[in-house]
Amino acid sequence: MLTVGVLAGASAPAVEAANAGPPGRNPTTQNAIDWKPCPQDAAAECGTLRLPVDWARPSAEKFDLAVARRKATDPDRRVGVLLVNPGGPGDSGVDFAVRRATSHFSADVQERFDIVGFDPRGVGGSQPVKCSTELLDQAPSAYPRDQADFDQLAAYNRALRQDCRRHSGPVFDHADTLSVVRDMDAIRRALGEKQINYFGHSYGTLIGEQYAEQYGDRIRTMALTANIDHSLGAREFLVSSAATAEDSFNQFVKWCESTSSCALHGRDVTAVWDDLLARADRGEIHDPESPDQVLTANAIALEAFKKFYGPDWDELATYVAGLDAQEQEPKDRRPTQQPQPRAPQGAEEQTRAEPFSAVFCQDWRFRPKNYREYASLTEAELRAAPHLRGSPRVHAAVAGCVGWPNKVNNPQHRLRITEAPKILMLHSLHDPANNYAWATNVHRQTRRTTVLLPYEGAGHSVYGRSDCTRDAVDDYLTERKLPSAGSRCTPAAKN
């Protein structure tokens, strides 16, 4: 799950897309996007596509979907368009296409495909979901201690939801992935392509999976890395997320024990870690960059979780060693967290982009009803990850849906792909965020349609991990050549 990249200035004239009708086979009028050089890089093109906020009411309110393109660098060898989504929910596909695609994809992929990124509705340049900064900063703990705390969390989430709807407009209520899938097919039509190629990472795999369900015959190739299993219930989701985060912690410990350059080498890393979180629980650990701020155990665990994505084990070991070395101070000398300054009365209300819950809570029917149910989920999560104390981001994601309406635009279900070509899936065995079991579950649901290539190492990204992973995707995208049955990619020499 990634950070939102907001595109500034991608405001080329919009072209309204034709009514797609239901996800069936209605004939549509072809439209073109009015491309202009991107403000950040004139070698890339930016534009917008005007689309319905609610695909069930295509003549009602519209919004502008931000799109960016890098044309194939060898037009004579061009295969087609490669739509990309880097994940999130909340990461910017426009930013990926403009700033990151040239370093992410191989020269061969860049030569042969027009790489097209888009900001999903509610993200970046596509009418972003915005919320009051002051209200966002007042969030209660995602770990309520009793029913009263749970009720406070639910009330806060309801207030925040109304605030975000007020600042964002009707797109907030239609930020679900199924709506994004309809938008993606509108992009295909606007580009004049009968079929697309697609590369989706992490949450972007859910977009790909559901596109394959709805529009499978409009796919030439589809490569998905770090896959999402959209059939999971709340308990399975939380426990499997916690288990894979804990597995990444265990991988870090093993690395440190066998690597002399590790800042914690020669020590009992697990004991150091557990003691550090216990000291944080007592308010004894300070933020090295803001010494007046106390670091919570959850904040430390979240920092470790982020380092597992790389994985950046050297940096994590140095970070933990530095926190562990902090001297204990008498309680009366310990600084406390300072309250956030409030905007002066009469000042314009400040907002910031915050699309995560608008997407997540409309894609997943996670609505714990009361503290007892929520506590049971949390206890199961902690049992699965006793050292990392669960998966910090996933726990916060589920907590953010407490108190939301029960209606979900895009509820979980088993994948039903009937018309798509073979789809290539890659997944790390030691992914900190998306459990490898999610990939095997998706593959089991779509066995006749998908091919799963495991990467036996650690980290969240997969494509550029090794020659094996990169070549597998490149060969598939360019030549539709799939790995042979039972193929696996061994861990890279250096994570």
Q: How would you characterize the overall build of this protein?
A:
The structure is a single chain. Helix content is 38%, strand content 16%. By secondary structure, the chain is an alpha/beta fold. The strands form 3 sheets. Strands 1, 2, 3, 4, 5, 6, 8, 9, 13 and 14 form a 10-stranded mixed sheet that branches. Strands 7-12 form a two-stranded antiparallel sheet. It has a two-stranded antiparallel ribbon with strand order 10-11. The chain starts with 13 loop residues before the first strand and ends in a 16-residue tail after the last helix.
The gyration radius over C-alpha positions equals 23 Å
pLDDT under 50 segments (min length 5)? Answer: 1-30, 330-346
CATH class of the domain at 14-126 and 175-231 and 414-479: Alpha Beta
Largest sheet: 10 strands, mixed
What structural category characterises the helix and strand content? Answer: alpha/beta
As a percent range, the share of helical residues equals 25-40%
CATH fold group of the domain at 14-126 and 175-231 and 414-479:
Rossmann fold
Order of helices and strands: EEEEEHHEEHHHEHEHHEEHHEHHHEHEH
- Under the CATH scheme, which architecture of the domain at 14-126 and 175-231 and 414-479 would be assigned? 3-Layer(aba) Sandwich
Q: Into which percentage range does the β-strand content fall?
A: 15-25%
Count of strand segments = 14
